[in-house]
Amino acid sequence: MIYTNFENAIEETRALLKNRGEVVHSRRWQGVEIASNPNMACLEVTHIHLEVPMDGYEEDLEAYAWHIKPDLPWVDDHFEERVGGYPINPGTEFKNWPWNKGRGAESFLDRRGKFNHNYMERFWPKHAHVVAEPTANTSEYRSRFRDYFQTGKATPMRGIMYEYGDLKDVVDLMLDDPLTRQAYLPVWFPEDTGGGDKRAPCTIGYHFLMRNDRLSINYHIRSCDIVKHFRNDIYLTARLVIWMLRQLRSRDPRWKDVRVGDFVMQIGSLHSFKPDWELI
Known about the structure:
The protein has helices at 6-20, 61-68, 74-82, 119-123, 138-150, 167-176, 230-251; strands at residues 22-24, 28-29, 32-33, 42-53, 184-186, 203-211, 214-225, 259-273. It has 280 residues and is an alpha+beta fold.
């Protein structure tokens, strides 16, 4: 569906889940066995596609916040953490997430005090394997990275053929070839495939595409909780388009007249767990 604004997109998608959702109860959630827990049954609709032209908002963050209604101020703080340039883990903002109650995020930390993945590592994966200790912020990561660098252990991650890329490489690619079709930031990595007994990213990745002086984004996400994550995921992605555009403008005058384009989101499973059904 193509919607005139984010408010309509969110409301109509909520109504779709409420009216057409079917109950599904999987064996695991985030690697945890849930088959015998009735509260982990979820109402679900699948293969959701929504589009919102961003030209009515341009780069007005207050307008995005008004229509999307994410969890502010947390979502802005977490966005800055994501684009901070370093693969910090676990970071800080996971503790401040408004829904961090009950089985909180802390329960998923490993014995080192790190998550098995997070967005900061997936946005900046080149050296995500280097610092073994948990890092709460960029200055802490830089300090520990310098120690490893001096020992010669700070070699970049490699895939089958090449070194890993990161968000900066996507920026560099678009500077080199503004009309490229390859400007994709993956968040789901091969190591996530088939791993039902461990946490895996909800986001698959982000595709940036510039046409007719408009920068659009196609956000692919496999799994999205409509109560706890849907609005935040939309807002974080809209901010990522604006961040990308400002990075490009700051380095190349060819981008000075480019504006935000279309927001496209494709969701494999949009759902809500049983305790939240009344909220939808």
